[in-house]
Amino acid sequence: MNPMFGQDGQRVLALITGIADLTADEVDRVTDAWKQVCPSDRATAWARLVRTTTEQERYQILAAASLARREALATAHRLRRADWAFWAAVSDAAAAVAAGARIGRHYDTLTAPLAAVMPPLAAFPGRAPASVAGFTADDPRAPAVFSEGA
């Protein structure tokens, strides 16, 4: 049986459960960061995601993005934030986490806005976050990342 959100399901769940902990200021930062990403870069990242996944994998990825968006909507409502860019940023990030390394550098495009307030998103399994360039994933000085089984 396949996990609901694919092989990176634990990382997706960590992302989703962390959304409710965001503050209004953090939601605003995510929103502003998402608006700074070039729309064509986002479109290219989503196209890569579609090209590199099977139909079943896309279903799992879109399920992750959908659930994350619902949690983002609930959080935005609770914090009285109505800008849809926050929901889009969270959805993009959840899709990228569910897709994992297969989307390559496009992972960063989709996760960067939310990673501004959730730094562990800045790296996918097997790659050190940009903030700790030069460290290996096993280096104890590197920050914790959302990892399988965490």
Which key phrases capture this entry?
150 residues; mainly alpha; globular; disordered C terminus
Describe the structure.
The protein is an all-alpha fold and 150 residues long. It has one domain. The protein contains six helices and no strands. It has helices spanning 9-19, 24-36, 39-51, 55-78, 84-99, 106-115. Helix 2 runs antiparallel to helix 6 (106-115). The longest helix is centred in the middle third of the chain and has 24 residues, at 55-78. The radius of gyration is 14 Å and the shape is globular. The chain starts with 8 loop residues before the first helix and ends in a 35-residue tail after the last helix.
Helix content: 55-70%
What order do the SSEs take from the amino end to the carboxyl end, as H and E?
HHHHHH
The class by helix and strand makeup works out as mainly alpha
Kindly report the average pLDDT value.
82
Shape assignment: globular
Q: How many structural domains can be distinguished in the coordinates?
A: 1
The value of Rg in angstroms is 14 Å
Q: Into which percentage range does the β-strand content fall?
A: under 5%
